[in-house]
Write a structure and sequence with these properties.
Elements: E1 7-13, H1 23-31, H2 36-44, E2 48-51, E3 68-74, E4 86-90, E5 94-99, H3 116-124, E6 130-132, E7 141-148, H4 151-161, E8 166-174, E9 180-184, E10 187-189, E11 199-201, E12 210-221, E13 224-233, H5 240-247, H6 263-269, H7 275-282, E14 289-297, E15 303-307, H8 315-320, E16 323-324, E17 330-334
Helix pairs in contact: 1-2, 6-7
């Protein structure tokens, strides 16, 4: 990574959907991890400006579509992370990489240069023209696809919308999942949670979501039963696999948000502990979710299939679930 300046600026464009939203609510919905009190402190410190606004910047300021909210933050506040990105495939239209399990894809208020986009800019320059067509959570490792801006990126995005892209994940979950199943449960915001970005199974008004999960290995880790699961999402909702596995009683191993105790996640988000301290409290460095394979149509024709083996940090869990299962019954559909 290149050297960072003393301060960095995060630019947050205001969309039509956010028109006339309060500034504090806009920042909360855009950044997600910050509490309202922390947002108010940041605004009060003078580190936020709204380009194109004449009024004084305050929490109740109404932002307008087309404006850009700029958050200024000390570069030294940005946490370190792994940057051992592996290039799996590259041609004129597509770039496929294997992301480590401690790297943010897109810049945010907390991570600016220590991101996958920052790694790409360091390697190919700021005008690299690679566009991420889908994303992985910070703690999820595995395959990420980028396409050249313009026609190639539009082609892949359309293929994703039309569900012509097949993704396969490996997850280690708590407990022994005894049968394969299709989890058909709509998702929406988890209203009872203190974490704004948290999702949950929606009783009404949620977005349709479907995931096929199949156990492929069983084991024990520190006296706790675990299962290696192959997960294939049919839809692509936020945190879909994590929420669906938790909804059937088998949350992903050491998922700080959906594993039952979200205080670890909140403490990390609020800066009360760093990633290393959170890992010690959780008992494992990160959530055990890995994007193992993707199959997609290529903009120039044909089909591209790319796989990434689980990284070394998941080796202890992979070794614990090395014993394969036999024939596993499949339930056609599971609904909450």
């Amino acid at each position: 990574m290149t050297a960072l300046p003393d301060f960095v600026e995060v630019r947050l464009p205001v969309s039509e959907a956010a028109d006339r939203q309060r500034l504090d609510r806009f920042l909360g919905s855009t950044i997600g991890r910050l509490s309202r009190s922390r947002i108010h402190r940041i605004i009060g410190s003078g580190r936020v400006r709204v380009e194109g606004a004449c009024a004084q910047v305050r929490p109740a300021l109404r932002v307008r579509a087309g404006q850009v909210v700029v958050v200024r933050k000390p570069a030294s506040d940005e946490p370190p992370c792994r940057t051992d990105v592996t290039i799996l495939h590259r041609d004129d239209d597509l770039l496929v990489v294997a992301k480590p399990g401690d790297l943010v894809v897109h810049p945010s208020a907390r991570y600016v240069r220590h991101t996958l986009i920052g790694w790409i800019a360091d390697r190919w320059g700021e005008d690299h023209r690679w566009h991420v067509v889908h994303r992985l959570d910070r703690e999820t490792s595995g395959v990420v696809v980028l396409a050249r801006r313009g026609a190639p990126a539009a082609f892949v995005k359309r293929a994703l919308e039309e569900r012509r892209v097949r993704k396969t994940y490996l997850a280690v979950c708590h407990g022994h999942l005894t049968m394969g199943r299709t989890i058909d449960a709509p998702l929406g915001p988890a209203r009872s949670s203190r974490v704004r970005i948290k999702m949950g199974v929606a009783e009404a008004g949620g977005r349709p979501a479907r995931t096929f999960v199949q156990p492929i290995g069983y084991g024990w880790y520190k006296r706790s039963p675990i299962t290696l699961v192959r997960a294939r999402p049919v839809t692509g909702r936020q945190h879909q696999i994590r929420v669906h596995l938790a909804s059937v009683g088998h949350p992903i191993f050491e998922d700080k948000l959906y594993g039952g105790d979200e205080t670890i996640f909140l403490d990390m988000a609020e800066g009360r502990c760093d990633a290393q301290a959170a890992a010690r409290r959780a008992g494992f460095p990160r959530q055990a979710l890995h994007a193992a394979r993707i199959v997609l149509p290529h903009p120039k024709g044909g089909i591209l299939a790319v796989s990434a083996p689980p990284p070394d940090d998941l080796a202890p869990l992979m070794a614990a679930v090395a014993r394969p299962v036999g024939r596993v019954p499949v339930v056609r559909r599971w609904r909450p």
